[in-house]
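Example record used in the benchmark description.
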Amino acid sequence: MIAIYPGSFDPITLGHLDIIQRGSRLFEQVIVAVLRNPHKIPLFTVQERLDQIRLTTKHLSNVEVDSFDGLTVNYAQKRQAQVLLRGLRAISDFEVELQMAHTNNTLSTQIETVFLATSNEYSFLSSSVVKEIARFGGSIDHLVPQQIALDIYKCYNHTPPTANPMTTEPIPLVKNIPPEREA
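Model output (structure tokens):
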């Protein structure tokens, strides 16, 4: 059975890779399909995203990387896929994804949508979060594969942070305040 995992993947994150790896164990073939969305201004070109995904999935023999425009169900039919693979992070994702699954079902009853719950450690992660952190010089090394992090740092003209230190300032001790005198 062939599954399509569609998305913009701008950039691909460890959360995306988690879904791809798990999907590759469930389906004969997983096609990671980069959507060309004219309404978004991407950080990376479609070709750069294809190359990044190929690099990070080369160890998965049943994963193919491709791009498309238009309706996902039309692309799935063209590729003879029976499943659209989607990851769910939170209830807000579920609402959007369920609506899309129902909409896709009105376009083709031959294609099912299969949802995989994102692993806990990636439940907060999105490409937008990665770009926001990187834009302001924060470390994204724990959110995306190493080579992708380097590509992102280059886009924002940042050097990779050497560490992701968490610093806190000590809170000064408050001296006991004597109770007010009664008059």
